[in-house]
Design goal:
Blueprint (H helix, E strand, L loop, with lengths): L2 E5 L2 E13 L4 E16 L3 E19 L2 E18 L7 E21 L2 E21 L9 E2 L3 E17 L2 E15 L7
Length: about 190
């Protein structure tokens, strides 16, 4: 449900959206989204703004009574901005943002009622815009700057096994392996 407060140089809102749809006895879809923004001034001279958006689509597929999978795609973005024009000679706007795309597949297998195996693969792409500084207005003497954008890819696989020896004793083991790769060109100063 949306919540918003609007008063002069302040506004705050949060929006949530969720839809679940059962396609048939073996397939279900789940869509969710969220958006928020907070914008306010402190001491009437500096404007701060934070925003956050994310969305995900999940598909659950039942292959048999002992085996099912959940496949998910998602996106998220966070952005921060601050600006001030109180002093026209150094009036500025500064911001940064980080975004993430994620795809994952998880499967669960139940060989017996006391034994469960879970495995999965996950890919996450990170995008980072670490910051810009811009002059605001014709009188500002600030020199605009923009930090170099960065991006990376994280890949992970996992498997785990849970076995109930007795109703009050179980054994659990698992392993997860992940690799992070920096993507694209970059200036490195030494």
């Amino acid at each position: 449900a949306p919540v918003a407060y609007l008063t002069g140089e302040r506004d705050f809102y949060d929006l949530n959206f969720n839809v679940n749809h059962k396609i048939d006895d073996k397939n279900s879809l789940f869509l969710s989204a969220y958006s928020s923004r907070d914008r306010f001034t402190l001491n009437s001279d500096t404007l701060y703004s934070y925003s956050d958006q994310n969305a995900s689509l999940k598909w659950k597929r039942i292959f048999s009574n002992k085996f099912y999978g959940i496949f998910t795609g998602s996106y998220s973005r966070y952005k921060y901005e601050v600006s001030s024009d109180e002093n026209p000679l150094d009036a500025f706007a500064m911001n940064f943002r980080v975004s993430q795309f994620n795809a994952k597949a998880d499967v669960d297998y139940f060989p017996t009622s006391r034994h469960a195996v879970r495995a999965g693969l996950q890919l996450t792409h990170y995008g980072l815009a670490p910051g810009t500084l811009e002059a605001v207005g014709k009188e500002s003497l600030l020199i605009p700057k923009e930090l170099q954008h960065e991006q990376g890819l994280e890949t992970a696989v996992h498997i785990s096994d849970n076995f109930d020896i007795t109703p009050s004793l179980s054994v659990y083991g698992g392993i997860r392996y992940s690799v992070y790769q920096y993507l694209g060109p970059r200036d490195v100063y030494s």
